[in-house]
Structure formats: C-alpha cells, structure tokens
Description:
The chain is mainly β.
Amino acid sequence: MPGATLKVVISPPTRTKQPGRGFYQLEEDSLYVPIGAYSSDRRFFSSIESETVRLDMDKNGELLFIEISLPRKKWKVEPTLAVPNHASPADLRWLDFRAEFDSPPVFTNSDRSVVGVKFSPEEPAVAYRLAESVIAETTDKLHVCRLWIIDIVDDVGGREIAAFRKQHPAG
C-alpha cells in the first residue's frame, strides 16, 4: 500500500514515562529503537513498513520497536533541524497493521544524534512523546507525519541496547 497514511488513535497516557532510545548498530548500519520496558509478555504482532523503516507493534497497536535500516551516511544532514520543543505524553495505538508505505526521507542534525523521519508532507498539528527519546507528530486528521528519535548512541554488538533493556525491565 505505497503512500499509505499512518493513522493512530490517541489516548491519555496510562503509565508513567516509557523508556525508549535510539541505538545505532555500527556493524549493521541500522538504527534500533526499543520502546517501553522490556518484558517477554510484550510480543510482536505486526508491522507497518517500507524498504528502509519498520514500525513493530503488539496486538493492540502499541509501538514496540522502530528500525531504520537506511545507513547513517545516507541520512540527509540539516544543521538547523528542529525537534518539537513541546510534546505531550500520550498513548498512540497504530492502525493499518501490515501496511506498507513508500520509504520516507530521513533527516539528521550535524552530529547525527537526532533523526527525523518524514512520513508525509502534511504539516504537523500536535507532538506526542511516546517514550523518553521518541516523539511523534500528527496532523489534525490523526495521521503520523513525522517521527523523531533523539539522543542516539552508537552501539557495537548490541551491548548498549542489552544494557538498556536490563536497566528497564517491566515491573
């Protein structure tokens, strides 16, 4: 379904701030972003994906993981890249499971510590904090038009992401 819109349902947050951070896997040239506390009870159900970006979710449409397989050297550098300065906490439930969309442009700042994924040319109306370092911007029609990952760290052999998961177990 190229050109699919990423429709969501937005609800008030039901839990405290979720952990979530970007880990750039140097040996794989991919960005991995786990979202939420790590638990074997949180299981993958479906994904919404393109050739370079995949959003994994559980059976309720809750985002579990983001993967950007476009190598960092191909991210478009924008020195004045501006992350939303205010994002409200919220629970987003993604619709259109198993949808496919065209590969979106991926933007970054000069030191490549922030990534912005532009799913749509539509202007954002509201920004929501999905996790500590993950922000989604939606249109007034509840379509996700941008996704931001901030505070990205380099990772070798999955050590940093493993330590992150160990530090944030589900309680």
